[in-house]
DNA sequence: ATAAATTTAATTTTACACAATTAAACATTA
DNA sequence: TAATGTTTAATTGTGTAAAATTAAATTTAT
């Protein structure tokens, strides 16, 4: 008797720890792969343009100028990430950086002509990428809705 | 005449360039937010444990040992990322690194006792995180399916 | 107005992430 | 087996990412 392989009465559920059962991993991997897929398109605009820099441009194309804080709120990035990134964009003459005269603590990032002219050639990027994904409009909307939900719950 | 505001006959479609209309940004933001949400849980296991290191442990808890190449294939990370990460994990005595005697080019990463004992306390992490998300099982499955599709198309 | 608390951007530190290159080891083929 | 080509991990260089700290400016309360 008692030769049964002892099922460890309080057996831990390790199955939730398998990579395939995680949500975070596919999110993490899909994000990196999609960012990587952007690269050749961004390189065409400028060999130095990175994806996070492109996100800054997307915002500035809409608003012309924003504070570092506003950029961070929109992109969910902090100044420790944005400051060096914006300094590189300043060197490329894509943006200007200056203190807000009404509040010397804030730095206003402004869109410069060299950054502005990148907008038109960037127009073809979204369509090009969507073609890679081979995803229906409906599923795309579902995906975006679910991702927005995740962001909302975690922010 | 010709005082009309010249509607630029070939008006570019800038609306696709708005941040809110992008797929990549929510993916990018959701990934970072979810990784950030993992932090307090991982800190409880060990203050030095990072999310990518946790992913390596998830694989080693399943397979005990894998080559760097196999880890990279599973995580979609290259050796330039994994090598320094694995060296840090080696210093923590979580994993061992040794050449494959049958193929001296390959480095085999093995799970050490100090890495193994982290598995049991890690079991509660997935449930804790899912609670944050407030997402139904069905929607979670949909999200994972769509993310897997994205990964598949881009890899 | 002045001290204290708060806000904000910058700085510092650590850790990914990946393209490009290098170098070593292995495999193939003549 | 010797030359060639391939595979693989490591290295190098650049660019995020984010927590923690610092410092300056502003606001608030006295």
From TrEMBL, chains A, B:
Coiled coil: none annotated. PANTHER family: MULTIPLE ANTIBIOTIC RESISTANCE PROTEIN MARR, TRANSCRIPTIONAL REGULATOR, MARR FAMILY. It comes from Hymenobacter profundi. This is MarR family transcriptional regulator. Residues 20-152 form the HTH marR-type domain. Gene3D superfamilies: Winged helix-like DNA-binding domain superfamily/Winged helix DNA-binding domain (1.10.10.10).
């Amino acid at each position: 008797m008692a030769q049964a392989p002892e099922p460890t009465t309080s057996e831990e559920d390790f199955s939730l720890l398998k990579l395939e059962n995680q949500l975070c991993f596919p999110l993490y991997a899909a994000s990196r792969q999609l960012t990587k897929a952007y690269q050749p398109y961004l390189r065409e605009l400028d060999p130095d343009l990175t994806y996070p820099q492109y996100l800054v441009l997307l915002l500035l194309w809409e608003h012309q100028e924003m504070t570092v804080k506003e950029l961070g709120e929109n992109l969910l990035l902090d100044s420790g990430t944005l400051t060096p990134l914006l300094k590189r964009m300043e060197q490329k003459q894509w943006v200007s950086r200056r203190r807000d005269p009404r509040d010397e603590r804030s730095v206003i990032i402004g869109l410069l002509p060299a950054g502005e002219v990148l907008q038109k050639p960037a127009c073809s990027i979204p369509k090009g990428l969507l073609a890679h994904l081979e995803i229906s409009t409906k599923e795309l909307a579902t995906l975006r809705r679910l991702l927005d939900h995740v962001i909302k719950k975690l922010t």
